């Protein structure tokens, strides 16, 4: 396993530069991975962020945007956008463009997470499942301690 801080020859595309995307970019930068950010909002500061190698303004579910982000050559695509329809479409298109890409997707609901998996995602983080676990843990910690 490559150590944090070591040179890493990986190209990662992160779609969405909100709180989730920024946290992912921060971690990838710490591991010296080359990061391209795709965000629909051109006012986001990713273009000025030294952690971002390349910035593409556009909708991640648009094939032309995926091509501009070089998904066809990327090692991973991290879909952090809250738009589940866009996530499912991006999974489908990215998988068609690059058989070997690792796709990590965000979904609000389990049903959309299953659709993202069917469309080509390798890993899906489902917000309602994560929320349920966190709430369970909080209640148990409070009541058992």
Report how far apart the termini are.
37 Å
Give start-end ranges of low-pLDDT stretches: none
Strand content: 15-25%
Secondary-structure-derived class = alpha/beta
Tell me the number of strands.
6
Oligomer type = single chain
Whole-number count of domains: 1
CATH top-level class = Alpha Beta
Q: How are helices and strands ordered from N to C?
A: EHEEHEHEHEH
| Approximate helicity band | 40-55%
Under the CATH scheme, the architecture is 3-Layer(aba) Sandwich
Mean pLDDT: 90
CA-based gyration radius: 16 Å
CATH superfamily: NAD(P)-binding Rossmann-like Domain
Count every helix, treating DSSP H or I runs of 4 or more residues as helices. Answer: 5
What is the name of the CATH topology? Rossmann fold
Strand arrangement in the largest pleated sheet? 3-2-1-4-5-6
Specify the overall morphology.
Answer: globular
Q: Largest beta sheet, briefly?
A: 6 strands, parallel
């Amino acid at each position: 396993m490559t150590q944090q801080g070591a040179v890493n020859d990986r190209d990662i595309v992160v779609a969405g530069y909100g709180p989730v995307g920024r946290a992912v970019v921060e971690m990838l930068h710490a591991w010296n991975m080359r990061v391209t950010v795709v965000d629909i909002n051109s006012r986001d500061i990713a273009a000025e962020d030294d952690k971002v190698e390349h910035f593409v303004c556009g909708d991640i579910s648009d094939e032309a945007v995926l091509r501009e982000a070089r998904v066809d050559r990327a090692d991973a695509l991290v879909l952090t956008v809250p738009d589940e329809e866009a996530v499912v479409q991006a999974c489908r298109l990215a998988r068609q463009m690059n058989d070997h890409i690792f796709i990590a997707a965000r979904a609000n609901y389990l049903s959309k997470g299953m659709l993202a998996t069917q469309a080509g995602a390798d890993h899906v983080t489902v917000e309602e499942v994560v929320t349920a676990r966190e709430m369970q843990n909080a209640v148990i910690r409070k009541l058992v301690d």
